[in-house]
Specification:
By secondary structure, the protein is α+β, with helices and mostly antiparallel strands. The protein is built from 3 helices and 4 strands; from the N terminus they run αββββαα. Strands 1-2-3-4 form a 4-stranded antiparallel β-sheet, with helices on one face. A hairpin with a 4-residue loop joins strand 1 and strand 2 (47-53). The termini are far apart.
């Protein structure tokens, strides 16, 4: 009886970890209107970081690190919800997560939100390599 309870508890913990991992690595569905909250460009590290904020105040930070003149060498990263779990996720080159970020940025550019110059920069790098 104790073994089955321990096994059930272990399964619940593992499912919890899988749920948290999915939450922190998935691209959120931000509610329109989406605005650009903050833009940071760090020349010494060759990185560009943009924080997007949706209508409910949910933040999504996305950026590139590396030489944007060489799209294959620029690494995409994002933080789904830095207030709850500040985990930086680096999706694989041409992965489904990268494509979801590309679609999100495309929707933002089409909506003509303010401050989209940095978003266009990230979008163009991702578009060139997809």
């Amino acid at each position: 009886m104790m073994k089955s309870i321990a096994l059930a508890a272990l399964l619940v913990v593992l499912l919890g970890f899988i749920g948290v991992q999915y939450y922190i690595t998935s691209v959120p569905a931000l509610e329109a209107p989406i605005t650009v909250g903050e833009v940071r460009e760090v020349k010494s590290e060759k990185s560009l970081v943009v924080t997007l904020v949706d209508s409910e105040g949910q933040r999504f930070t996305v950026g590139l690190r590396g030489d944007t003149a060489k799209p294959e060498e620029a690494a995409l990263f994002y933080i789904r919800n830095p207030d709850i779990i500040p985990y930086v996720f680096w999706p694989g080159l041409r992965s489904n997560d990268e494509k979801r970020v590309l679609e999100l940025l495309e929707d933002l550019i089409e909506s003509d939100a303010s401050g989209v110059a940095a978003v266009r920069s990230i979008y163009s790098v991702l578009k060139e390599r997809n």
